[in-house]
Design a protein that fits this description.
Length: 531
């Protein structure tokens, strides 16, 4: 990865050494120097797997109607911790767990002082603070804790200062490995996209792909990256692609992950036939994807590690791949499809602005926290780095960095076509609909009323996410309004002038609100207009 020459932002390093009841933490910062504190697990070891399962359950938007069942023993564990409410996991579990973690972290006076001094110094410098968590490979239980969810007396720790830039948290695996050489100046990033068909409904896969390609097209038009997409995503096809070259700089995976028997897996397509899948273990992936600069894993449970002492930290997908890739962004719990799409959108946008990987991930986390009503997903993405240097990590040379100088990337429009290794659908592929419909004045007003009843169209920031499903040239032509009805009217009126844009708008609403009565009414109206 390209390292930028901007000043190094303030950081606080926490080095974990496991102990029988928790860890000894070594604290290092410019503000507080070095010190050591004791950390005791805030819950019994036997309850840790249940706690992770409970956090995972809340990632299902329809929980408790949808989600994993809990045994009587698990319910007892959660009740003892105050995390069970009648017949379900408490809704604010991530906050309660974050508060318990924070209390345990600062229970030792040395740890409290080290944390306070580092935060106050960063605030005085008006800079974001980066937390660097370093785990040895045997620190399985410690790495299983959701450190990103740390919550102080007022707010989530990574978001509590309310500054221009949110604080960042990065996980390191202590390995004596060097970074590979940076990209030559002027070279574009190349992304290899892996989006298996196995286990993902056609509608959702098409909607994700449309949103992803809209984001990447903006970067491509700035001359910043190129990409190709593998289809089908089988282990053999990926092996052939990596052998044939050229090697990609970024692997972007969107699909399903699983964690069982102490091992992490990603779901690939099977060579047996359509609809079949194959589980590819972390070990196989690590052997195949060595020397990749960044791996982005948008998969359920891709960052989760076992909460059992006999397991190695390298049984998790993200930790295993961080041993051979310089950086891995992955999910530590089941990730909502809407959250994965939004996180990807914001993260790549920030990287395109020339911001560091640490800052891009932090900004994407903050975006999830702001737009989700229940705030359940923002802490799920994790960032693992494999480097000896505690510096911002940049993918793009010549970016303007994190507001600290440098050059803006060129805005000259270029139109290189992405290379395809296999036949795929159009970049704007969406669920099959009538290709072009034009509405009359009364129909426009009726559609506006139906859209305003849909949750995804009731707030400006949510509408912005829906608009990502529309082709960029249409989206940029829309004159936004601060008043809800006027804004939706502008959106519908503009889309009505572009063939197929209304289909994309309806598909975007369907992606976020499918199954709601409002969305069902919208789809009934849309079907009638297509008959």
């Amino acid at each position: 990865m390209t390292q930028h020459n901007d000043p190094i932002p303030p950081s606080l390093t926490l080095r974990f050494t496991p102990t029988p009841d928790g860890a000894r933490i070594g604290w290092e910062s410019d503000a507080g120097g070095t010190c050591s504190s004791l950390f005791r697990l805030p819950m019994a070891r036997a309850a840790l797997p249940t706690l992770i399962k409970a956090l995972d359950a809340l990632q299902h938007p329809d929980y408790p109607r949808v989600g994993p069942p809990f045994s009587p023993e698990e319910v007892q564990h959660l009740s003892d911790l105050g995390f069970w409410d009648g017949r379900r996991v408490v809704a604010e579990l991530h906050r309660l767990v974050g508060q318990q973690l924070y209390a345990a972290l600062v229970a030792d006076r040395e740890g409290e002082l080290a944390l306070r001094l580092a935060r106050e110094a960063a605030r005085a410098q008006r800079q974001a603070l980066t937390y660097l968590l370093r785990f040895p490979p045997e620190a399985v239980e410690l790495a299983a804790l959701p450190w990103e969810a740390l919550w102080d007396a007022r707010q989530a720790l990574l978001l509590s200062r309310g500054g221009r830039q949110p604080d960042a948290l990065v996980r390191y695996i202590d390995l004596n490995e060097a970074l590979s050489p940076p990209l030559p100046v002027g070279q574009k990033l190349h992304i290899l996209a892996l989006a298996p068909q196995a286990g993902i409904p056609t509608q959702i896969r098409a909607a994700e792909r449309a949103a992803r390609h809209a984001s990447w097209t903006a970067l491509r038009d700035q001359g910043l990256l190129t990409w190709d997409e593998l289809a089908p995503v089988t282990a053999r096809a990926l092996d052939d692609r990596m052998r044939a070259g050229p090697p990609p700089d970024v692997i972007h995976y969107y699909g399903h992950g699983s964690y069982s028997d102490g091992q992490g897996y990603l779901v690939f397509d099977s060579e047996i036939g359509a609809g079949q899948h194959e589980l590819v273990s972390a070990g196989r992936l690590a052997a195949l994807l060595g020397e990749i600069r960044l791996i982005m894993l948008f998969a359920c449970q891709s960052a989760m590690v076992a909460a059992a002492p006999q397991q190695s930290l390298f049984t998790g997908i993200a930790p295993a791949l961080s041993a051979v890739s310089e950086a891995v962004v992955a999910m530590q719990l089941t990730v909502r499809i809407t959250a994965a799409t939004r996180f990807s959108e914001v993260c790549y946008r920030e990287l395109a602005r020339g911001r560091s990987l640490q800052t891009a991930v932090a900004e994407a986390r903050r975006s999830l926290y702001v737009i989700e009503q229940d705030g359940a997903s923002w802490y799920v993405p994790t960032l693992y780095l494999r480097t000896r240097e505690q510096r911002p990590v940049y993918l793009l040379a010549g970016g303007h960095g994190d507001g600290q100088g440098g050059q803006e990337p060129s805005l000259a429009r270029k139109n290189p076509e992405p290379h395809r290794l296999a036949a795929t659908d159009s970049a704007s592929a969406l669920p099959p609909q009538v290709s072009a419909r034009h509405l009359g004045r009364e129909e426009v007003q009726e559609l506006v009323d139906l859209l305003l009843a849909c949750p995804a169209m009731q707030q400006s920031n949510r509408r912005a996410s829906v608009l990502e499903f529309i082709e960029p040239q249409v989206r940029h032509a829309i004159e936004r309004d601060t008043q809800n009805r006027n804004d939706v009217l502008q959106i519908v009126t503009t889309c009505n002038d572009y063939p197929g844009a209304l289909d994309e708008l309806v598909a975007g609403v369907r992606f976020f609100d499918q199954g709601t009565f409002a969305c069902q009414a919208l789809e009934a109206f849309w079907r009638q207009r297509g008959e």
